[in-house]
Amino acid sequence: MFYVGLDLGQRQDHSAIAVVEKRIPRLAFLPPEGRELLVRKVERLPLGTPYPGVVARVRELMCGEALAGQCTLVVDATGVGAPVVEMLRSARLGCEVTAVTITGGEKESGSGSTKSVPKRDLIAGLQLALEKSELKIARRMKEAGTLVRELVDVRATASLGLGKVKIGANGSGQHDDLVLALALACWRAARKEIGWSSQRLPGI
User: Fold this and answer.
1) pTM of the predicted model as reported, rounded to 2 decimal places
2) Which fold has domain 2-189?
3) Is 69 left (phi over 0), alpha (psi -120 to 50) or beta?
4) Domain boundaries, the chain
């Protein structure tokens, strides 16, 4: 099963895509902790790519031979993302589309294919998967180096006197779009699946 995270950019931000393969033990008696998440692709679209162009690129990827019929899409629906989610749902992708509004709140909420998720939970889930060695990055992936630099730059920053914590890029690159796309894919991969089997990705 494959999970595609889509972080929608705005004027000064890139839209970004991350593809994660979820592998689970074939033997039923093995614990669920034996799962493995493999980052198979990350892609940052050119700055200023219009949303119809983003939808077209996502459709090309989702309907391609490597992913067709065995994937789910998770989209950042925050802000201007809601209309793009509707465009994606109308694009005949042949897969489940989950819309996630990223919040600064304390709890996850929502039902079905529409959710509100605190940003800190998305980042924390990603960090936990890395710490437990569940998440692995394919070394031959084109943007592997860029993704690693973003992962190093993303951190939590406390606002003095405000009692708030900002989570995002705080290093030399100042980008976190690939990390957010990856976090969305990993968040969805942690949810239960019905009727799916783990398969290997032949190539994207």
Assistant:
1) 0.80
2) Nucleotidyltransferase; domain 5 (3.30.420)
3) left
4) 2-189
